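ok new one. same drill as before - structure tokens go in, u give me an amino acid for every spot. 240 of them this time. try not to just spam alanines like last time pls lmao
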């Protein structure tokens, strides 16, 4: 942007009368380099919602500089921040990256159709917290069910071994079949506890899933967390 401004100053400030040959060459070079630079300059355009277009005293600030709405604005490549203010103060804020030669349209919306103010950050924040607790509850529930399933299978194995060698609850001497019976009772207790915890976690997750309000912002955020459940294991995957 600074280079473009310098080139334009040279071109527009040139006076052909009494100009030397060197000055004419410098202006010609500036004109050519400006023509090569212009396609590399990125630009943005702000698209406002219908209600936002009628906001009183709307001010759009790009990196602290006032810019017009609904018209292309040239910018330097890199990171920028766009802020919308009105009589009630700051209403929306967007950070974005842009590269050489790009043209982006940024949508900004913070008013409901009735005109009442509703900041997207507040709506997203409330739902995000409930989704986070939902992931925690699902992870706990899946872990509990996994433990209950694995220990249940182990308990049935021990029970089968003890039952085969302990007719009428009397175990044969020598092999450790009495230990199988004791281990069966312990594993059975752990399995039952695992199912109870798993059921509570899954129930909590379903309750949060049903009662979490849907995000109505124009650009809703998608949670990067994905629950991963397997036999005897559970966790979550985060996508950067």
């Amino acid at each position: 942007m600074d280079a473009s401004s310098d080139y334009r100053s040279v071109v527009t400030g040139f006076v052909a009368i009494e100009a030397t040959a060197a000055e004419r060459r410098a202006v010609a070079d500036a004109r050519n380099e400006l023509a090569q630079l212009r396609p590399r300059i990125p630009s943005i355009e702000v698209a406002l919602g219908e209600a936002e277009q009628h906001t009183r005293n709307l001010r759009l600030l790009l990196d602290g500089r006032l810019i017009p709405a609904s018209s292309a604005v040239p910018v330097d490549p890199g990171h920028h921040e766009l802020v919308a203010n009105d009589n009630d103060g700051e209403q929306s804020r967007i950070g974005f990256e842009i590269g050489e030669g790009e043209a982006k349209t940024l949508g900004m919306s913070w008013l409901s159709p009735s005109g009442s103010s509703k900041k997207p950050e507040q709506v997203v924040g409330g739902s995000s917290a409930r989704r986070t607790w939902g992931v925690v509850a699902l992870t706990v529930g899946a872990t509990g069910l996994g433990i209950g399933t694995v220990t249940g299978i182990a308990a049935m194995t021990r029970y089968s071994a003890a039952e085969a060698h302990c007719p009428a609850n009397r175990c044969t001497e020598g092999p450790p079949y009495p230990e199988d019976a004791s281990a069966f009772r312990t594993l059975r207790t752990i399995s039952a506890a695992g199912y109870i915890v798993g059921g509570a976690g899954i129930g909590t997750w379903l309750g949060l899933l049903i009662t979490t309000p849907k995000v109505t912002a124009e650009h809703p955020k998608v949670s990067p967390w994905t629950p991963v459940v397997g036999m005897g294991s559970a966790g979550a995957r985060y996508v950067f």
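Confidence is low (pLDDT under 50) at residues 115-126, 215-222. and btw Residues 2-108 form a domain with the Immunoglobulin-like fold (CATH 2.60.40).
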